Amino acid sequence: MADTTSKSYFWKGFRDGSPFIFVAIPFGTLFGVFATEAGLDIVQTIAFSATVFAGAAQFTALQLLQDNTPTAIVLASALAVNLRVAMYSASLTPFLGAAPMWQRAFAAYLTVDQSYACSIMQFEKEPKMTVPQRMAYFFGSVTPITPLWILATYLGAVLGAQIPESWALDFALPITFLAMIGPMMRTMAHVVAALVAIIVALLTVAVPFNLGLLIAGAAGMIAGAQAELMMERRKT
C-alpha cells in the first residue's frame, strides 16, 4: 500500500513540475547556443549541463570563461550564485533528512528552484506525508525538467555550432540574464539586493579577474538580508 501511495505522489509531483518545462527548454537551448559560441564543443556543453545542472551558475561561469577569467574565480563565482541552494537544502532537511543516504545524494543533485518550490509547498500543505512519499514527490517534480534540460542543451549546442561567427551573439548573454532576473523581483528585499549589486558591480568594474562580481554579489546579499530584517521589524 505504501508503495502505491508513493507512486501516486511521484505522479502528483510530475504533474506539478511539468509547467516548468516551458522555462527549462528555452533556457537550456540558449545555454547550448552560447556555450558553443564561447568555444565549447557539443560534448563539453552537454557535460557542463549534466554535471552542474544549475542554469544561473552555468551562465555565470560561461560569461567568465569568455573573459578568460582564472578557473578558481569561475568556480567561486558559480558557487556564490548557487548559495541559495544551500538554503533550499536546509529548508528541506526536516522533511527529507531521514531518507537513505543515496536518495539524499540524488536529491542534493536535483535540488533546483523548481523542485524546491514545488516540494516545500506540498510538504507544508500535507505535513503528515511519510518520508518515502515526500521523496517520491520531490523526484517526481524534477523528472520532467532534468532530461529536457539536457536535451535542450544538446539541441542548442547543435544549433550554435551551425551559426556563423559573423553573427556575434555575445550580446544575447546579458539579455538572457536580465530575463532571468526580472521574475525574481518579488519583494522590496529582492529589489534592494539587485540595486546594490548593480551599483557595486559598476563601482568595482576595474577589479582584476572580474572579482567585482563576487564583491557585488556579497554586497547585494547583505543589503537584501538587511532590507528583509527591516521589513520584518516594521510588521511587529
Topology:
Blueprint: H1 2-17, H2 21-37, H3 42-52, H4 55-66, H5 71-81, H6 83-96, H7 101-109, H8 113-125, H9 131-142, H10 146-162, H11 172-181, H12 188-203, H13 211-235
Keywords: Cell membrane, Membrane, Transmembrane, Transmembrane helix, Transport
Main location: membrane
Subcellular location: Cell membrane
What's a concise summary of this model?
With 236 residues, this protein is mainly α. It contains 13 helices and no strands.
Please, could you describe this protein's structure?
Helix content is 78%, strand content 0%. The chain is mainly α. Helix 2 packs parallel to helix 4 and helix 2 packs parallel to helix 10. This is Inner membrane protein YgaZ. It is found in: Cell membrane. Belongs to the AzlC family.
**If you average the pLDDT, what whole number results?**
83
User: Roughly what percent helix?
Assistant: over 70%
> Which blocks of ≥5 consecutive residues have pLDDT under 50?
none
Gyration radius, in Å: 19 Å
| Biggest pleated sheet | none
Distance between the termini: 46 Å
- How many beta-strand runs? 0
Task: Count the domains.
Answer: 2
Question: Structural class from helices and strands?
Answer: mainly alpha
- The 3D shape can be described as globular
Task: Quote the beta fraction.
Answer: under 5%
H-E string: HHHHHHHHHHHHH
Quickly count the helices.
Answer: 13
